[in-house]
């Protein structure tokens, strides 16, 4: 059965499945007997990626960070970011946020809010301290003020953190969007109190939230950034950490990994950067599609006031907040039966998560949104609308 993919490898396929330009670059590299795996040694493929990454992605924000190649998973990048923050500051606590998700290894789990994921560790998770994310205590509460109050009070009982790790848009946590002012306030508090700021851009980066980096709209410059998922452009495993130059204090081999040198991923990553991020054409295309998604979801929500409690997200990571998780599960199931792959997010899996590839043609985007609307109709006991 033909299916439309509104999951995109949980954000690892922002440029779609087997994009012909990226496939062609990979096939050409392999046909010329290009080296596939190189540990941490220099290769032409790595050099080409690094120069292109600097010219396209990093130049957008004026970043002058060093690039560390970690093991191929996003959680490994998070672990590396936490380790260097602890090494540089000499402090052990990493502050994170409610509903945040940073990976499934122990250090990342200590900074993850989801109780089910945390229980899976099988042992206590030290070294983390959770703070309320933007909006967690209501729309009028600036939770960065609470964070600063903890830091300023010697009797708060809050261990001074080495770093704060934050998602500018929480994907797994339910498509929660941090306001630009809140991010700027968080950056200010961190800077004023000597706390490093780590932005986890593994899911919200590479164009998913609009710009290449999710923090661009706020104008902040994080001390450390983690990237993975769609960085390779093609779903090949690849992760990096961007580290402010003065913080690059690793000893040789202090954080290594066998599969740091996936040259096949370097090739497709460079091709994606060249194709999509040399100018603002692709970014404008994302904005147009994001508007289309927002309007379609607004229509669905308006048609079903008892089913949804609102819209969530930004860019091409948007969704609908269902009044209960069972209804969300039923809608996803009905959509799958009709040819649409879509998943749920949020603390109770109550958010329908539209994660179509950024390159999805408008006709397919509309088709998928129509299937979603039909699935909502069916599970709500309504007759199906005309989605043609």
TrEMBL record:
One of its GO terms (molecular function) is diaminobutyrate-2-oxoglutarate transaminase activity. Its cofactor is pyridoxal 5'-phosphate. This is Diaminobutyrate-2-oxoglutarate transaminase. InterPro entries: Aminotrans_3, Aminotrans_3_PPA_site, Dat, PyrdxlP-dep_Trfase, PyrdxlP-dep_Trfase_major, PyrdxlP-dep_Trfase_small. Keywords: Aminotransferase, Pyridoxal phosphate, Transferase. The lineage of its organism: Bacteria, Pseudomonadati, Pseudomonadota, Alphaproteobacteria, Rhodobacterales. Its EC number is 2.6.1.76. CDD domains: OAT_like. The keyword Transferase applies.
């Amino acid at each position: 059965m033909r299916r439309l993919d509104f999951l995109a490898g949980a954000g690892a396929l922002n440029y779609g499945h087997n994009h012909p330009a990226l496939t062609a670059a990979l096939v050409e590299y392999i046909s010329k007997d290009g080296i596939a795996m190189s540990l941490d040694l220099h290769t032409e493929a790595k050099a080409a990626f690094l120069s292109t990454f600097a010219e396209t992605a990093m130049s957008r924000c004026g970043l002058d960070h060093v690039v560390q190649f970690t093991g191929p998973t996003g959680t490994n990048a998070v672990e590396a970011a936490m380790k260097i923050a602890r090494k540089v500051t000499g402090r052990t606590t990493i502050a994170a946020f409610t509903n945040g998700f940073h990976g499934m290894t122990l250090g990342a789990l200590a900074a993850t809010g989801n109780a089910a994921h945390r229980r899976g560790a099988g042992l206590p998770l030290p070294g983390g301290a959770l703070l309320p994310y933007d909006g967690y205590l209501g729309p009028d509460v600036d939770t960065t003020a609470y964070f600063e109050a903890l830091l300023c009070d010697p009797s708060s009982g809050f261990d001074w953190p080495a770093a704060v790790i934050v998602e500018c848009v929480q994907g797994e946590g339910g498509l929660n969007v941090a306001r630009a002012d809140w991010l700027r306030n968080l950056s200010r508090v961190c800077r004023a109190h000597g706390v490093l700021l780590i932005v986890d851009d593994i899911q919200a980066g590479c164009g998913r939230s609009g710009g290449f980096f999710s923090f661009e709209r706020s104008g902040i410059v994080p001390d450390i950034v983690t990237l993975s998922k769609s960085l390779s452009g093609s779903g090949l495993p690849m992760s990096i950490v961007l580290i402010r130059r003065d913080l690059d204090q690793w000893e040789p081999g202090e954080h290594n990994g066998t599969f740091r040198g996936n040259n096949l991923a370097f090739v497709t990553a460079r091709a994606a950067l060249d194709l999509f991020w040399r100018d603002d054409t692709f970014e404008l295309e994302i904005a147009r599609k994001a508007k289309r998604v927002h309007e379609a979801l607004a229509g669905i929500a308006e048609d079903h006031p008892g089913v949804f409690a609102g819209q969530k997200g930004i860019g091409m990571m948007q969704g609908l907040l269902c009044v209960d998780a069972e209804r969300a599960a039923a809608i996803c199931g009905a959509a799958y039966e009709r040819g649409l792959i879509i998943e749920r997010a949020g603390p109770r899996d109550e958010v329908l998560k539209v994660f179509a590839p950024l390159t999805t043609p408008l006709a397919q985007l509309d088709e998928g949104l129509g299937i979603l609307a039909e699935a909502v109709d069916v599970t709500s006991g309504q007759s199906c609308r005309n989605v043609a």
